[in-house]
Amino acid sequence: MADIIDNIWNVTDLWKWFDDISNFTGMPPTEEDVGPCNIETETLNKYIVVTIYALVFLLSLLGNSLVMLVILYNRVSSSVTDVYLLNLAMADLLFALTLPIWAASKEHGWIFGTPLCKVVSLLKEVNFYSGILLLACISVDRYLAIVHATRTLIQKRHLVKFICLGIWGLSLILSLPFFLFRQAYRLPYSSLIVCYEDIGNNTAKWRLVLRILPQTFGFVLPLLVMVFCYGFTLRTLLEARMKQKYRAMRVIFVVVFVFLLCWLPYNLVLVTDTLMRTGLIEETCERRNDIGRALDATEILGFFHSCLNPVIYAFIGQNFRNGFLKILATHGLVSKDFLARHHITSYTSSSTNVSANF
């Protein structure tokens, strides 16, 4: 009788553990995860989460489409930074297209099969890595243009296209393990299907490797590059009292700040979870619950990033507003007199005036 009771306890505990990690970025339960902890069954209300996903999807779809439209419409005068921002909008837009699928999985479990599990997981990771790598490239471009007053890349804009291709390629490489190892499978002791990595007997150990390597090369190193470049760039602007260029850099500073505000908490929690699973931090039931709640909350914050950049451009980027109004005037939606009253003659975003005015 005691054995039967123990088995019932283990099955119940495993089911609670699954409910706790039902977000798609966590780790599915392995045998060592099953223990006597009273794991919370729901860290966040799933209906609120689905509503947030739908809102982010709509805002991102509209905002990033407008950003791409403005840049492509004025591509003749586009700068190096504009090209990077165009690719950043593309990455956010691609990720936003997957949000309805993730929202449905929150409600019904993973019902879309293994191929779609691989694709949407890949797009989510590519969005994150391409985002921070593109921002790192912008920081290097601004560093060279302001601190060293060089126009090497500015004069050879075609090189930027190859840099962007390289960024997409590196992002795909960093995200490839998720594409290779993620699949839809039925959870033990359950009828529910999930989308997670499955790497055989050493799944738990390999998941730690798949976390640590991309975190190092796809987050920590680009973050250090941005800190170095923007630190010296800001110092140069302040020492030279280049107020015009400082105002022009506001958009880029805000874009980087918002990216870190959205994604840094999630990555810090992920690092903490990894340290706990490797034994460097003691694992307790309370700590496991706290990290589960933190992962869910900070993941949603990270998802919000895909719709925030267009808002930044609209409120801070004068050139973006001018470019958008110019498109409206071309199609007769805004009068030419309106443009004249607001001194809007052309959409210029040259790297000479630090194109971050975008």
Tell me what you see in this structure.
With 358 residues, this protein is mostly helical. It has one domain (44-357): Rhopdopsin 7-helix transmembrane proteins (Up-down Bundle). 72% of the residues lie in helices and 3% in strands. The protein has helices spanning 2-20, 46-73, 80-96, 99-108, 113-146, 152-155, 157-181, 203-240, 243-248, 250-277, 285-304, 309-316, 318-330, 336-341, and strands at residues 182-186, 193-197. A two-stranded antiparallel ribbon has the order 1-2. Helix 2 runs antiparallel to helix 3, helix 2 packs across helix 12 and helix 2 crosses helix 13. The longest helix is centred in the middle third of the chain and has 38 residues, at 203-240. The radius of gyration is 23 Å and the shape is globular.
Level-2 CATH architecture: Up-down Bundle
Based on helices, strands and strand pairing, what is the structural class? mainly alpha
Please, what is the average pLDDT? 75
Q: Outline the low-pLDDT stretches.
A: 4-35, 346-357
Helicity level: over 70%
Major sheet: order of its strands?
1-2
**DSSP strand (E) fraction?**
under 5%
What gross morphology would you assign? globular
Rg, rounded, reads 23 Å
Count of DSSP strands: 2
Could you tell me the CATH topology label.
Rhopdopsin 7-helix transmembrane proteins
CATH superfamily: Rhodopsin 7-helix transmembrane proteins
User: The biggest beta sheet, please?
Assistant: 2 strands, antiparallel
